[in-house]
Amino acid sequence: xxxxxxxxxxxxxxxxxxxxxxxxxxxxxxxxxxxxxxxxxxxxxxxxxxxxxxxxxxxxxxxxxxxxxxxxxxxxxxxxxxxxxxxxxxxxxxxxxxxxxxxxxxxxxxxxxxxxxxxxxxxxxxxxxxxxxxxxxxxxxxxxxxxxxxxxxxxxxxxxxxxxxxxxxxxxxxxxxxxxxxxxxxxxxxxxxxxxxxxxxxxxxxxxxxxxxxxxxxxxxxxxxxxxxxxxxxxxxxxxxxxxxxxxxxxxx
Length: 253
Description:
The chain is an alpha+beta fold. About 25% of the residues lie in helices and about 30% in strands. It has two domains: about 5-85 and about 225-235, Phosphorylase Kinase, domain 1; about 85-205, D-amino Acid Aminotransferase, Chain A, domain 1 (2-Layer Sandwich), CATH 3.30.470. The chain has helices at about 45-65, 100-105, 135-140, 145-165, 215-220, 225-235; strands at about 5-10, 15, 25-30, 30-35, 40, 70-75, 80, 85, 90-95, 110-120, 130, 170-185, 190-195, 200-205.
């Protein structure tokens, strides 16, 4: 499809004006960043893999009645999504202690939590996406109490779906983050899952070995990020097991 006006460029994606009102074309870049973009690199094929995997997860959520902004994949790097008003929060669901939670609370990485814990971070790169409470969210008007109830429900439903899917292919869903957007139907608004769901936004560990299959491979210099993401895609059947890692893919319709 013809390239349209650029709306926004972030660390991992570019958003373009969509072909119809209320739509956006989401382009997945090969850029990899960590530690609030203090560490950067370009990983051949990463964007194509994340596009395929996010399509897989978003389509699965749509099929079980969890609404998302995903409409369809256009080619190896682009997907058509519904335009939403993003709530300025990262919604993090943790099943096991890892990353910043382990550092904050002194809990050994890999410790199973007594129940899924949902955390919220204020989306602001210049501040390092600080952890916030529901009191902050209400006080500053980022979301209403009804919104927060809906966000919690969506986050836990995504967790149930993702945990089951990943367990079925021998992968432990340690944690993940999602973004939530508002869409309006006349005078009524509803909340839907937006942005992406991919190994960039999840911690995924092999159940047998504990091997990382997510962006921690890049953060911690644990090997090839492309190989890790390709393995996730192969286990899920998104790519055939005989495939080689996706590098410099040709755009196809």
